[in-house]
User: What shape does this take?
Amino acid sequence: MDTFVSRKRRRVSGDQAIIERADPPVDDDNDSTDFKLAILTSLYPSVDQQILLEALLSADGSVEEASKSLAPSGLPSDLPRPPRKDTIGYQSSLTSFTLPRDSKSISPNKKRHLTKNGKTLHLFAPEDIENYTPCSIVHNFLPTTQADAILRELLGEAPSFRKATFKLFEREVSSPHTMAFYVDSLEEEQAQKTDYVYNGSRIEDVRRSLPEMRRVAAIVQDAVNKEIQRRIRDHYPDGKKLKYQSPHEWRSNASFVNCYDGPGENVGYHSDQLTYIGPRAIIGSLSLGVAREFRVRRIVARDDESHLDGGHASRADAEGQIAIHLPHNSLLVMHAEMQEEWKHSIAPSQAIDPHPVAGSKRINVTYRCYKEHLNPQWTPKCRCNIPAVLRCVQKKKENRGRYMWMCHASYTPGQEGCTYFQFAEFDDDGEPPWAKRVKNTAMSMNADNLVENVTREIA
Ligand SMILES: O=C(O)CCC(=O)C(=O)O
Ligand SMILES: [Fe+2]
Assistant: This one.
């Protein structure tokens, strides 16, 4: 699972070599509100995020105080509770929203605030979603029987899913939902267990993709490649792929499967980790079972006031929270501009409509394309001798969009690490300087295998 919380990084003083600066020009305050909210969410999974946020604000940002105010009765009595709506088929907080007639051609990159007074814009129609967010959606994606088949297959797995845990100042905190990680081959399974590092630790429970997951992966792959081409043609400047976006076919070779059991389970605002999927990554995300709300919001640099419209708009309006309704059997494609420029979450809900097969559960499969040249055997290691994490500067205007390799501990709460930092270089196709070497090695290994097989056959 990706890091879905962040924290204030420790600052270390003193001169350092350029490649190991203690104070990289990055996101020093990296969304501490999101982080605090994630802690509160993990402590009070069934309490609405809005209520948690109110508690946090009333407590001047102190998680401890906010937690105290929430603890005795479960809910502070003077906090507003969002109204309950009993709309059939939708999460309760979803409301219909009519966009202006001329809205179709507005690119999501245009600086126009769609949300006002911090309100959430709710989108349902595919054309609105692709025009106003970095995502596109395909409803009724699989034949009905196949959607049910993969849902049943994964519901069979879900009881053994685990919450992602992370250490926070000597305390273990867990994500308010469960998940598991799947890869296609035995070789990949072994490499994942021994080489790959996520939030500073290795994943012990790496699973092999199940038969229906594999069949669906092939369909997802075709659909994602089509959606990528359509996006490039219809939405990107001059109909060209973005800088750092891969020109190669998108291939699904790993997936995280998430399970949200009941309305309270959720995942806080985050961007997916780029370490193994690279810059301008694309993710295919299949939703099954209970319909839930996927929220996205733009990342606004902390020192960038330009979005604030001369003081007339708030930061919340500049971030522009948008809710995308994800019904059963829908494929959401997170396009190349998503992870670097936007954050996403699954919001806790007040009420859900039970699904005939899944009951109270939503299952989500995020199909990912792990890059061979980002296998940890090739990427930089920090001074703790752990593969460095790849991050993109999001919150500081000055270096926004630049990539960097850094010690994982800088972003893992409660963990001590080193101060390793290095700007990451990629060519226009998102390939690091060592990519050619990786290709040559792979080619010579294939040639060796071929010779070995032929020799064996002759003998
Ligand atoms: O459940 C979802 O739709 C999103 C999950 C997610 O963001 C993730 O796995 O990184
Ligand atoms: Fe994610």
Q: What stands out?
A: The two ends are 47 Å apart (CA to CA). The first helix runs from residue 32 to 43.
